[in-house]
Amino acid sequence: MSDEGEWLHGNVNLFASGGGNAGEHRRHMESGYLLRIPETSRRLLAARGRALGGGGFPLPSEEVRTRIGFPPRSDPRITTVFTGRRAFYQREMLEDLLEWMKESGDLATGVVHLCEMTRRDPFEGSGRPTRLLGVLDGVWTRSLNGPHRLVYCAKDDRVDFLIARVRWTIPKAPETAKAAEATETTEATERTEAKEAPGTGAPSEPPEPEPHAPDKG
Q1: Partner of 103 at 20 to 30 A CA spacing, among 38, 65, 167, 200?
Q2: How many separate helices (H) and strands (E) can be counted in the chain?
Q3: How far apart are CA 187 and CA 193, in angstroms?
Q4: Contact 2, 168 (CB under 8 A)
Q5: What sign has the CA pseudo-torsion 133, 149, 78, 76?
Q6: How far apart are CA 9 and CA 14, in angstroms?
Q7: What is the pLDDT of residues 170-217, one digit of tens each?
Q8: What span, in angstroms and rounded, lies between the C-alpha atoms of 182 and 93?
């Protein structure tokens, strides 16, 4: 976890466990935590806007497993039980699940399992469900791994899963990263060759011709 991530995560817990209305403190801190990180805030608000407009992919847990590349096997923890609510996955959520899958299949399985538990009961269970405030009113979070959160909206007939990772920076596209690396390598090579090449200094002035002695007649 980065230093900033540790500070934010630690202060969320500090305020949540402090005196007074601990639940209200946690709601304020969780809302600010997600909104103060530019890339996370951008992705979260985009996914929320799409969910409010009725967008998203209505997917059962088993199909989510297939989409993010799980092996074709059944996991006893992930079994869709009809409760009247359908699960809708926003594009950002599916991107985050793919990232979890790259890191660890067990972590990705845990996230999908938590999504299924959330669909069954959005307001109770593991991960300390917390309703957010302000511009995120109506949005809920559950704690995941370290600084990461499962963020979702819940209604009587559907649960929209928005994001499942806190992203501190915008990841470079593979093509962009390769192009930047190639440019840096070329520039470094040119600098090295310029240093090693002889005669790279300023051109010297040609020598003046020596005066001729006058001819004796």
Answers
A1: 38
A2: 7, 6
A3: 10
A4: yes
A5: negative
A6: 9
A7: 555 445 445 555 556 666 666 666 666 555 554 555 556 565 555 554
A8: 32
pTM of the model: 0.64
Quote the CA–CA distance of 217 and 215 in Å, as a whole number.
Answer: 6
Cβ count within 10 A of residue 9:
18
Q: Is 140 helix (H, G, I), strand (E, B) or coil?
A: strand
Amino acid 124 reads E
Which residues face 89 on adjacent strands?
57, 161
DSSP structural state of residue 36: S
Predicted confidence band of residue 4 (pLDDT cuts 50, 70, 90): very low
Measured between alpha carbons, how far is 176 from 196 in angstroms, rounded to an integer? 31
DSSP class of residue 197? S
List, in sequence order, every residue forming a beta bridge with 119; answer none if it has no partner: none
Measure the CA–CA gap between 7 and 28, rounded to whole angstroms. 16
> Tell me, what's the pLDDT at 149?
95
Percent of the chain with pLDDT over 90: 35
Tokens coding 205: 């002035």
